[in-house]
Please model this.
Amino acid sequence: MTALPQPINLFEFEQFAKERLPKEEYDYIAGGATDEISVDRNHRAFASWALRPRVLRDVSALDLSTTVLGTKVSLPVLIAPCGGHKRAHPDGELATYRAAAACGSIMAVSANSNTSFEELAKAARGHLWVQMYPFRDKEMTQEWLDRAKEAGYEAIIVTLDSQWPPSASATSAIIIAGRAVLTIRRRMRRRRGPQAGPEKDPTPPRPGTI
Ligand SMILES: Cc1cc2nc3c(=O)[nH]c(=O)nc-3n(C[C@H](O)[C@H](O)[C@H](O)COP(=O)(O)O)c2cc1C
Model:
């Protein structure tokens, strides 16, 4: 059996993922929209932060905890809503959630999650927030909010944008995201029965038209 890699920083995680994941899955996770300018900016913004070592201090009781919208977290890092964790590992969102709970942080469950948010809430030990696309159909939006409340979610993250295929370099990430949104809409319609009508538009939705 090959030994599991022990990455020491995020760049090494990225490299291991690149070696192990099928190209389409890797591109979905690592790629950005259109010219990927924000990916580059994010790297540069992150690199501009420096940790100032402090010496000759009492480090016996370090505390990185803080409060985010009234919820105490043990470190100032949360898990943003990201769809399709099973694309990278069969345990999918349940594994991510276990990690978030073990670190004392919050996992924001994506609307494109491979595991239903009710199922995740049942496994809950930590804090869970859920992402929501405001559907143009207000009843669908209400239903989503009711389900989240009933499942015990503590907060809703409202996503106000969605990607639209770029003119030149259409990345698989964007196509997958578009498909995922259609799947959510289809699932919601199925839950509501035949009166909801058939899926009409097979193309990804434009921002604000979900
Ligand atoms: C692979 C991937 C999947 C994502 N899926 C979603 C999603 O399903 N819903 C959503 O609202 N945002 C999604 N996002 C956006 C993230 O929640 C986050 O807003 C974005 O990555 C910016 O944060 P960052 O600069 O830390 O990457 C996704 C991002 C990535 C990289």
